[in-house]
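During the no-cost extension, the postdoctoral fellow (Dr. R.K.) reprocessed legacy sequence entries with the updated structure-token encoder. One reprocessed record is reproduced below for audit purposes.
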Amino acid sequence: MKVLLFAILADICLSSLVPEEEKDPQFWRRQAQETLRRALQLQQLNTNVAKNLILFLGDGMGVATVTAARILKGQLRHRKGEETVLEMDRFPFVALSKTYNTNAQVPDSAGTATAYLCGVKANEGTLGVSAAVTRSQCNTTAGNEVTSILRWAKEAGKSVGIVTTTRVNHATPSAAYAHSADRDWYSDNEMPPEALQQGCKDIAHQLFENIPDIEVIMGGGRKFMFPKNTSDVEYPEEDKYRGTRLDNRNLIDVWKGKKPADKKAHYVWNRTELMSLDPDKVDYLLGLFEPIDLMYELNRDNETDPSLTEMVKVALKILQKNPRGFFLLVEGGRIDHGHHEGKAKQALHEAVEMDRAIGLAGVMTSSQETLTVVTADHSHVFTFGGYTPRGNPIFGLAPKQSDIDKKPFTSILYGNGPGYKVVAGERENVSWVDFAHANYQAQSAVPLRQETHGGEDVAVFAKGPMAHLLHGVHEQNYIPHVMAYAACIGENRDHCRSGGPQHPSGALTVTSALLFFLLSTSVF
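Re-encoded structure tokens follow.
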């Protein structure tokens, strides 16, 4: 009798989870028909030349992270969550990217950044160089440098910018401007003596030397720009935030000194200074808001630290002044850090903030002239499951206990990482901890000080001119080639002059012949 009563109550509870409108079949039919209508409109391809290019990179934002962030976004608005639409979900074209490095099945963020920025796959740990370079071996670098789409855009007369929530000399942004045998050579202080003797330069140095006229640079990394033991402007008593440079150079002064006298260059280190700027009176902007990486969004000081969305807004206002257009790289870099620390709540809030920035960029630009691509460099061994009911809090418990150790478990789990805990010889009982805390480390199957990347493909979302060229399963290094093709920069620019596409090999295949037919009436 008790079993029957429990089953009846369970059915009633589950039924109440279903919104009333969703019980009507017409709700789903109308939704599907509207989606079909929009899909049919996509047959009219946008073959305009892309005046502007925006690449949003969610570091570590695998598909599971995208889905969980979608649910979180909805639940932050007091909805069930699953039905929510992320800004990137609205992009009409979706592909998958194969993320492996040339020497690694599961990649790191440096080799992947070289792929999606420079168009060439590379070894793990290396930046802006080909796979002929061995990590940490300076003497393998010369002659094996590869350039990025940021440089291609700059050489075409466009304005360029980098916005990140990590340090500006971290793996993702560094591949846009640096050529380094080791991603960890943030300043000369982190380089081995033999690398310095062989003439290799640290990444912070390269930021201001390789492409000195980058219009917008925003993120963290102040400590790597100042002479060793220089006190930080925001944390003067903190030794760990003091300057690191052994060459005694102040790179902020170097940056200022390279700007033409008739141009207005502004260096800012806090939100107040940033938000007080008049973008119309700024030609160059360098914003370094923390000594290392920016604060997590959940920990951010709204008075001193700008959000990713706020940085993107300022960047776009500055870059949009160029009549030839711009290229902007935006990295939600601390999604990755949250996952490495096993702190899913931090990671997912970072992803939601990046989605907010994507939405803002969509409002400030037109898809008729701006190609916007959203992707990730790699995934993580992050997952959520456990047969949770509709609307279950994304950071909540699965509905049933383990049938092995009779303990509850959270929906979110990691394959490995710092969340592995044994209490009295058994798995920790999560009922005894605050698993909804921002810094809660979700349980993992294997103990590691830091959780690892995952090796599966990641999503690529695209909208704007030539976005349809991102359409299937691609090697990661294909991404910048598409963006360059759309903007008529870099190589493969014959279609810009002739008015029709040309196959890279010079011979039209059946597929490219069809593409030629579709595009030949366009005016580039």
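Residues 1-14, 500-524 have pLDDT under 50 and may be disordered. The first helix runs from residue 2 to 16. The remaining legacy entries will be reprocessed before the final report is submitted.
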